[in-house]
Structure formats: structure tokens, C-alpha cells
Amino acid sequence: MQAFLHQLLAGLATGGIYASVALALVMIYQSTHLVNFAQGEMAMFSTYLGWAMFGLTVGLSFVMGALVERIVIRPMRHAPVLSVVVVFIALLMIFHSLAGWLFGYTIKQFPSPFPERAWYGTALMSAHEVGAIAITLAVMALIFGFFRFTALGLAMRAAAQNPVSSRLVGIDVGWMLMLGWGLAGAVGAVAGMLVAPVVFLDPGMMGGVLLYAFAGALVGGIDSPAGAVLGGFIVGVLENLIGSYVVGTELKLTVALVLIVGVLIVRPSGLFGRTIVVKV
Predict the structure, then answer these.
(1) I need a labelling partner for 119 at 20 to 30 A (CA). Which of 31, 50, 161, 264 fits?
(2) Phi, psi of 201 (to 5 degrees)
(3) Confidence class of residue 275 from pLDDT cuts 50, 70 and 90?
């Protein structure tokens, strides 16, 4: 029973990391209705920045996300969907290769932001696992408060949902989209710094994490930040339990793929996503 409880709590901790990346994916989707396949590699690159200069990482990641939107994504706003998908895949490869070129492909240790013997660590959950859950919930609460109770957050929501009407009332939609990408970049950096102490730091560290985060975002609802966080926790728990007791560690990644396919078949909008019906 204790082993099962440990796997359950460890799954929650892992799910917190997936939830952070899923939250970044949802923020991009809410801003542009596009899925950023390069989000994992952007988070990985930000983590390398954190390894090199810890204090500036989140701010630089915000700027990086904003610049990607302004320089790469905005000129593609009228392009076919397939062209945008190719651009995202190209961004994924660019960040992957750039990180390897700048920092090397040798696996590096990344220190946990939480002290190993902190008071909140227990026999069942390490201080890092407890901290990862707490940070994820805190980030979700901050984002919820920002979008719900601040004028800038409301303007960003309006620009994403109805850009034409937003322009008519004086909202600079372009700047709002840039801010959305910047915030997603910052959230991705936080997720990367939570992942690196667990899986170690190397250019390929976010590959599996991004897949689990996609699964979490789809399970919870790609247009629902709270749903994405809950979906990330669900995927983390299922991955740990099924991987430990059913399929084994070698097939754990299959759990995410099965979840993605299952959700798309049964409920494409996710648990908390909105189903939009258009009359024609």
C-alpha cells in the first residue's frame, strides 16, 4: 500500500510538471488558436539559460517568446494551417540544434530550486516533488487572477476571442498576442527548471515531457487553463501507475499516445473545453 501511495504522489509531482507545459500550450492556443509544437524545445533552451545565468531566465524567456511571435508567427497569420505546422516543427529543430551548438550535448546536472532537506519534504514525496506541485498551482492561480481581474488580462482575452471587435475599441491586438507568447515562454521556462533536476539537462530532455503535456492539455481542454493543469496531473498519475503496475517503464510513453487518441475520439474538446457550434 505504501508503494502504491508513493507512486500516486510521485505521479502528482510529475503531473505538476506536465501541467506547467500544458498551461503554456493553452496560453498560446488561447492567443492565436495555434498549437506550438516547439514549446518543449523553447522551455529546454530557457532551462539552459537558467543553467548559465539563473536570475535572468524567466525575463529572457518572456522576451524570447514575444520575439518568436513578432518575427516568425505574425507574418504567418494568413498562411495555411499546414504551413504554420511546418514552421513550428522548424522552430523545434532550431532551438534543439541551437542549444546543442551553444551548450553542447553532454548531459549536465541542474540543481533543484528547493533544498533537499526542506521541512516540507516527506518520506513519500521529496522536497522537489512537493515544490513542483506548489509552483504549478501558484502559477495557475497567478495566471487566472491576471486574466480575470486585470485590465491587461481582459484585453488579452478579448484580442484572442474577437480581434476585429477588439481593434474597434482601441486594443492593440498585435501587442496582446506578443504578450501572450511572452507569458507562455516564461511559464515554459519555469516548467523546464522543474523538469531539469529530474531528467538532467540536455537538448532532448523535453521530448517526452511535451508529449505528456499535449495529452494533459487535450484531456483537460486545449482552451481551458484550469483544465490543462488538471489534465496534466491526471496524465502524470496515470503514467506513473500504469507504467509501474501494468505496461512497465518501457511503454510508459504509450500511455500519453493512447490518451491523446482516446480523447480526440471520445471528447475532442476535453473535460473542460468548450464545444463551439456554428450555424451555417
Answers:
(1) 50
(2) -100, 115
(3) low
Task: Indicate whether 212 belongs to any domain.
Answer: no
Considering the domain boundaries, does residue 211 fall inside one? no
Q: Does the model's pTM come out above 0.90?
A: no
Domain count, the chain: 1
Closest by CA to 216, choosing from 227, 203, 201, 202, is 227
Q: Which domain holds residue 188?
A: 2-105+124-205
Give the DSSP H/E element, type plus range, for residue 63: helix 57-68
Is 67 inside any structural domain?
Answer: yes
The reply to whether 172 falls in a domain is yes
Please tell me the distance from the alpha carbon of residue 55 to that of residue 101, in angstroms, as a whole number.
23
Burial string for 74-83 (b: 16+ CB within 10 Å, else e) reads eeeeeeeeee
Residue 225 and residue 231: Cα distance in Å, rounded?
10
Map grid coordinates 468548450 to a residue.
274
78: which 3 cell numbers?
494568413
- C-alpha–C-alpha distance, residues 204 and 82, integer Å: 25
Mean pLDDT, rounded, for 15-43 = 81
CA distance 132 to 3: 21
In the structure grid, which three cell numbers stand for residue 149, read together?
481581474
